[in-house]
Amino acid sequence: MEYNLYDREGYKPDLEPVAEAHRVAVVPYYALVSGFLSGKYRSKADAQGKARGSRVEQYLFSIPTE
Q: Which residues 6+ apart lie within 8 Å of 53 measured at CB?
């Protein structure tokens, strides 16, 4: 499971209580969502041909509506 600043919904309800109960540290995986949250990729054109481009494209236009 990915756990980073953008994708946390799977961690919070299921794994956070277990990690706290067993005093286990949790380390984010791609904390800045492969560079997406750094502002490095602002469009699909920015992501094309980059090593992490395919991972980032899914986030470019999927802004949460909460």
A: 41, 47
